């Protein structure tokens, strides 16, 4: 899950919500709803409303619930097919609709997906008035400016991981906290256009290098956080999952900014 929830995840409320949303039987419910084109979070809305009434007034908790459901679905191989499906009830207005069946992309399609992200991001930036580039969403989350800087910097992190796995035997791959990096590097004082262009150029170089990887290189492993062996291919797919997480967050941010513009 995105590091924007690292602080919230230490709370008792987050632990209790995660226990409900990630219970073993829940995936079946999410999958059934996905097969009929309904937002997966609908499976838990009534129970959350009954047992966690405080969530209605807590934007971060609501965002966490949506992100937790998305994490379960991605873990089982489902793709988002609609970012904002309607959800009934008082807790959630919208939720992501996932593919009816798990999807395993060929590796070439993974690279194509990675290559497409800068264009999608640039198009979103073009739609948002510059006056809103630094506005953060309600609850927790990055502004458009922070997204640009984060995407740029995480590409550098992943590029270093890929290089380490290619060159060394079972190198340690440590997780990073994007929220901490954003604070340390003062993203809010940076230039969005420059970060966007640097992200685009860096991603082009990264995708070009990924196309040259051999099957033997893709099978090499790194040790994630000292406990989990991950192949280079899994690490590349993890970067695409990271993109997809941001794509959902950006979709929500854009709608929030559109509502803000409409009220002005």
Describe what this molecule looks like in 3D.
This protein is mainly alpha-helical and 264 residues long. The protein has 2 domains: 3-98; 107-263, Four Helix Bundle (Hemerythrin (Met), subunit A) (Up-down Bundle), CATH 1.20.120.450. 59% of the residues lie in helices and 8% in strands. The chain has 10 helices and 5 strands, in the order ααααββααβαααββα. It has helices at residues 12-21, 26-35, 42-51, 59-75, 107-127, 144-167, 178-184, 192-211, 215-218, 232-263, and strands at 80-86, 94-98, 172-173, 221-224, 228-231. The strands form 2 sheets. Strands 3-4-5 form a 3-stranded mixed sheet. β1 (80-86) and β2 (94-98) form a beta hairpin. α1 packs parallel to α4, α5 runs parallel beside α10 and α6 packs parallel to α8. It is globular and about 55 Å long. The two termini are 34 Å apart.
In short:
The protein is mainly alpha-helical and 264 residues long. The chain folds into two domains: 3-98; 107-263, Four Helix Bundle (Hemerythrin (Met), subunit A), CATH 1.20.120.450. 59% of the residues lie in helices and 8% in strands.
